[in-house]
Amino acid sequence: MLIDGNAVEIKNLVKKYPGVEALQGVDINFPAGRITGLIGPNGSGKSTILKSIVGLVKPSRGELLVFGQKLDRRLKEKVAFLPEINHLYKNMKIVQIIDFFQSQFSTFERKRALEILDFMNLKPEMRIKSLSKGMAGRVKLVLTMARNVPLIVMDEPLAGIDPQSRARILEGLINEYDAEKQTIILSTHEVLEAERFFDYVVFLEYGTVKLQGNADDLRSEHGMSIQDLVKEVFI
């Protein structure tokens, strides 16, 4: 899988739900081999874009290409998705969920999952129902980052997690990320902690792109951090 160019290309993407147009002709190129932050208030269309990329939402109109191709079953195997919701089975042990993921995805590396789990200070025999929200968030990251795939998509991986756990999760993410082979697209409200990892940033509001570009270029052009730029863009 080539990592040059754009990992995802979105052209004039429209998504209509009953009574609302979640995406209003969005144009975005997500560069390959980079970490892109998708930033915006609730209802801006972030989750709709991410779910469209991984094939969970079908756009009403427009074009979406993943590594230059339309998403199909074969290509979906090359995309890992971390949803905002807690999709973990509460009565299962972490090791049981790891074994389940191994049975579901040929790209899942069990040894890698156990190594990341250890880094996250989690034990395989822990039951999901006994975990705090921050610990459950780490498990979701373990399951996602253990997939040997070129595209990783994450929807609010830090939502509701305490600052100490957020730092640990971000550290784990970057330690496992291979820029020569992988692309990460993630949405987050926790810009203060996450922005130092962003190579590219897309600002969304009301289903439209307000601003996008290389993170360093945006900082230089506007003379402020991405966190401060959020305040300027969404005033």
From TrEMBL:
Molecular function GO terms recorded: ATP binding; ATP hydrolysis activity
Pfam families: ABC_tran
Keywords from the named record: ATP-binding, Nucleotide-binding, Transport
Coiled coil: none
Every ABC transporter domain range: 8-231
CDD domains: ABC_DR_subfamily_A
PANTHER family: ABC TRANSPORTER ATP-BINDING PROTEIN ALBC-RELATED
Protein name: ATP-binding cassette domain-containing protein
The organism of origin for this protein: Iocasia fonsfrigidae
